[in-house]
Amino acid sequence: MRLSVIGCGYLGAVHAASMAKLGHEVVGIDIDQNRIDTLSAGQAPFYEPGLPEVLNEALASGRLRFSTDMASARDADVHFLCVGTPQKAGEYAADLTYVDSAIDALIPYLGEGALVVGKSTVPVGTAARLDIAIREAQPSAMLAWNPEFLREGFAVKDTLHPDRLVYGLPVGYAHTIAKAMLDEVYAATIKDGTPVVQTDFVTAELVKVAANSFLATKISFINAMAELCEITGGDVTQLADAIGHDKRIGRRFLNAGVGFGGGCLPKDIRAFMARAAELGASEPLSFLREVDAINERRRHRMVELTIEECGGSIRGKRIAVLGAAFKPDSDDVRNSPALDIAAALQAGGATVIVTDPQALDNAARVQPTLTYAKPIYEAVLNADAVLLLTEWSEYRELDPDSLAQLVRNRCILDGRNVLDPAVWRAAGWSYRALGRASANGALSLATV
Ligand code: UDX
């Protein structure tokens, strides 16, 4: 099929390359000339494992090209809308400027019977509004809503082998045609046995925000348990293992620590709350306010714990922060807990040196006043405390004895609960983590 992919950010760039890999003829369109030039040269504009390979293979096949000119979408049968919907400045609501301008720009080029497929995460009700605009301009054109669930770091795999496909389909005659066109786009994936959920626009829009709200809730739930473990002297990692064995609960997304960040979970739960409030339905989502608050509290707690470990003040202390990206295998620093904590420590008077295998350029753009060091040894040299805030595999595998040679003070704070406390303590380190007892043992509830 001939496809256009409008918006070549994290979602669109991966989608365009992956669809070309599946055999479609794809044009990726973006208003950012630099991004288009980078992608056309076979380079990924961000760090995403596997993307450069798929991109180059697709470009070499001749089935993939990129352009800033919306007119190049003219011949496509299916147009994927993959533009961003960031949080509005100073508000919780999603900013739909890019969605609206992309649709306005696309409408003049919609051919007979073209299908527009929304993939961006949007407030419920957006698809119905866009559907009217599209059909008014080109009566034979159709809209479908097909949310995307890809995770950064696994984006190519998640696109080619998703857990499920969700089709939000129009009503009437267009329903059958839109479904058939989507089935053709995803034929290879469907052949692999991927389940397809067919539904309406509203449900498809809600599925995406519901999924992200559930994941955020799961993380904040375990982080709330971590808060209780800190008060009672329990161990949140053992608690997560124990409840995770219950198949109804499951162990995934029960990793306690400094909480969730990134370009999706935080802004999506906030936009969901804002949209619900507009619809007069704040109450059913009031729990999300707590999910957000627990998540924010974990960042503050990490700062408190660092101050505690530094003897009550971080003024003049040298603190090494391992990790700047919001999660490993990504160079994305949007709403990164690690950077937020690093900035708070600096504001408290510490000298903070941040290291990350991939995200330092992005981090320096967002937090230009922090100090950055690429090699780990440079970041930890003479440190009074080392904070592990993004669980890159190289930090999980750090050797406590070698690290001890470099630091001023053997003090490690594990913000992701990925190190073995026994190993670090045996090597003479003071090991602290969120939701785990300190070495002096658990608080004895019998004495409270
Ligand atoms: C998320 C959703 O998983 C994905 O389906 C959706 O399409 C986009 O949003 P992503 O933002 O790439 O994907 O990252 P994800 O792996 O979900 O992690 C989100 C955040 O939660 C990260 O900051 C991660 O460190 C944190 N996290 C995750 C935890 O703190 N604990 C966990 O147990 C899992």
Automatic annotation (TrEMBL):
Any GO molecular function: NAD binding
A Gene Ontology biological process term: UDP-glucuronate biosynthetic process
Family indicated by similarity: Belongs to the UDP-glucose/GDP-mannose dehydrogenase family.
Keyword match Lyase: no
Domain UDP-glucose/GDP-mannose dehydrogenase C-terminal, chain residue ranges per copy: 320-421
Binding site for substrate: 149-152, 208, 253-257, 261, 327
Pfam hit, one: UDPG_MGDP_dh_C
Gene3D superfamilies assigned: Cytochrome c1, transmembrane anchor, C-terminal, NAD(P)-binding Rossmann-like Domain
Name of the protein in its database record: UDP-glucose 6-dehydrogenase
Biological pathway: Nucleotide-sugar biosynthesis; UDP-alpha-D-glucuronate biosynthesis; UDP-alpha-D-glucuronate from UDP-alpha-D-glucose: step 1/1
Keyword Membrane: no
Enzyme Commission number(s) of this protein: 1.1.1.22
Family matches, as InterPro entries: 6-PGluconate_DH-like_C_sf (IPR008927), NAD(P)-bd_dom_sf (IPR036291), UDP-Glc/GDP-Man (IPR017476), UDP-Glc/GDP-Man_DH_C (IPR014027), UDP-Glc/GDP-Man_DH_C_sf (IPR036220), UDP-Glc/GDP-Man_DH_dimer (IPR014026), UDP-Glc/GDP-Man_DH_N (IPR001732), UDPglc_DH_bac (IPR028357)
PANTHER family: UDP-GLUCOSE 6-DEHYDROGENASE TUAD
Bilayer-spanning residue ranges: none
Catalytic activity of the protein: UDP-alpha-D-glucose + 2 NAD(+) + H2O = UDP-alpha-D-glucuronate + 2 NADH + 3 H(+)
Highest taxon, organism lineage: Bacteria
Binding site for NAD(+): 30, 35, 85, 121, 152, 267, 334
Alphabetic keyword roster: NAD, Oxidoreductase
Catalytic residues identified in the record: 264
